[in-house]
C-alpha cells in the first residue's frame, strides 16, 4: 500500500517542482537580458578579424587583432547591418568613445562585408577600427555572444570586465559604463 501511495505522489511532487521553475522563469522581476557571461573576468581569447574598413578618415588600418590594444581599455561592439537595435545604438557608440576617451572597436557579426560597409557608409563610422566576423566564430568562441548588438569592455590586460547585451542607452553609458571605464583607466 505505501508503494502505491509513493507512485501516486511522486508525479505530483514533480509537477509541483516544474510549476515552481516555470513561475520563477515568468516572474515580472526577471530581466531576460541579465544572462551572466562565464567569460566576464577572464582574458579574451585571441583572434584576428579581417579588416572591414581600411584606414578611412581616422579609422585604423589592417586586421583587428586582440593583442593590438593591450595596455588600453577598449570597448568591442558587435553589430550587423540587418540588426534594427544596432541602428538605434549607433550614434551612442561615438558618444561612448568621446566621453570615455577609449577606442571603440567594431566587429560586423554574421554579415556580408558589402552590407556592413553600406551600413557604415549610411550611418557613419563610430569605430576606431572595424573587423569582419562573417561566419560568427569570433563572436561565439572569443566572447560567447548571444546576438547583436552586444558590447564588451576590456581592461588593459585584455580581460573582459563587462558585457552589455542589447543596445546601449544614454542612461547605461552615464550610470554604468563611464564609472567602470574611468576606474579601469586608472
From TrEMBL:
Annotated Gene3D superfamilies: Glutaredoxin
Subcellular location: Cell envelope
Key word Zinc present: no
Keywords from the UniProt entry: Cytochrome c-type biogenesis, Disulfide bond, Redox-active center
Chief location bin: other
InterPro entries, sorted: AhpC/TSA, Periplasmic_diS_OxRdtase_DsbE, Thioredoxin-like_sf, Thioredoxin_domain, Thioredoxin_ResA/DsbE_sf
One family name in Pfam for this protein: AhpC-TSA
Domain Thioredoxin: 38-186
Name by which UniProt lists this protein: DsbE family thiol:disulfide interchange protein
UniProt source species: Dongia soli
Amino acid at each position: 500500500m505505501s508503494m502505491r501511495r509513493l507512485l501516486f505522489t511522486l508525479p505530483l511532487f514533480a509537477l509541483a517542482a516544474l510549476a515552481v521553475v516555470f513561475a520563477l522563469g515568468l516572474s515580472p522581476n526577471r530581466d531576460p537580458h541579465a544572462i551572466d557571461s562565464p567569460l566576464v573576468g577572464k582574458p579574451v581569447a585571441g583572434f584576428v578579424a579581417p579588416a572591414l574598413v581600411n584606414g578611412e578618415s581616422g579609422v585604423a588600418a589592417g586586421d583587428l587583432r586582440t593583442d593590438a590594444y593591450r595596455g588600453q581599455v577598449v570597448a568591442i561592439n558587435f553589430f550587423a547591418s540587418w540588426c534594427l537595435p544596432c541602428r538605434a545604438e549607433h550614434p551612442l557608440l561615438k558618444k561612448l568613445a568621446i566621453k570615455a576617451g577609449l577606442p571603440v572597436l567594431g566587429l560586423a557579426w554574421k554579415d556580408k562585408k558589402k552590407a556592413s560597409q553600406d551600413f557604415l557608409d549610411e550611418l557613419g563610422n563610430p569605430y576606431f577600427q572595424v573587423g569582419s566576423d562573417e561566419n560568427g566564430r569570433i563572436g561565439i568562441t572569443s566572447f560567447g555572444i548571444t546576438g547583436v548588438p552586444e558590447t564588451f569592455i576590456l581592461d588593459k590586460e585584455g580581460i573582459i570586465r563587462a558585457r552589455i547585451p542589447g543596445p546601449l542607452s544614454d542612461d547605461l553609458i552615464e550610470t554604468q559604463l563611464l564609472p567602470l571605464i574611468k576606474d579601469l583607466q586608472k
